[in-house]
Amino acid sequence: MAQSTDMSELQEAFKKFAIHGDTKATGKEMNGKNWAKLCKDCRIIDGKSVTSTDVDIVFSKVKAKTARVITYAEFQKALEELAPKRFKGKSNEEAIQDIYKLVEGKEPANVGVTKVTKAGAVNRLTDTTKYTGSHKERFDESGKGKGKGGREDLVENTGYVSAYKNAGTYDEKAKEK
Question: Bias regions of kind Basic and acidic residues — which residues (predicted)?
Fold first, then answer.
């Protein structure tokens, strides 16, 4: 076992990745998804010597037969399995030291996971000043929705057909006769 690396930092990184994305996680066990995320975020996966498939195989190898998670001890064993693959040409002890250094003090990266897109199409579709026809009637001049009044045709009980030009002139015509 490598003594010169700071084991508390390694354990801290293990805990942070173990609880990532799971509100019920205690930080004592890590699932396969978080193990893969740790390997990706800490750049253990380089795409050439270590791939995501290698990471999954090592996870399956170190965990107990029926278990779906690995403990901290199994996590260290998994890192030791990947070390010679990741750092070819180095001694086993040096490779283990280097792989521990990759993981130490790291935490899950959340930057850029989900971004709000402000594409031109979205702006164009949500700009109420460009609406035409019946959709235009649903918003006032400021772009605020009119609510139910903008969605439904409110019936006026005047006795005239809607859009009749001479509405309201009957009484005047009746007086003329």
Answer: 134-154
Q: Do 92 and 81 form a contact (C-beta atoms < 8 A)?
A: no
Rounded to whole angstroms, the Cα distance separating 18 from 29 reads 6
pLDDT class for 1, splitting at 50, 70, 90?
very low
Angle at 97 between CA 91 and CA 100, to 5 degrees: 140
Amino acid at 107: E
44-79 per-position pLDDT tens digit: 988 889 999 999 999 999 999 999 999 999 999 999
Give residues with Cβ within 8 angstroms of 99, minimum separation 6: 44, 79, 80, 82, 83, 86, 87
Regarding pTM above 0.70, the answer is no
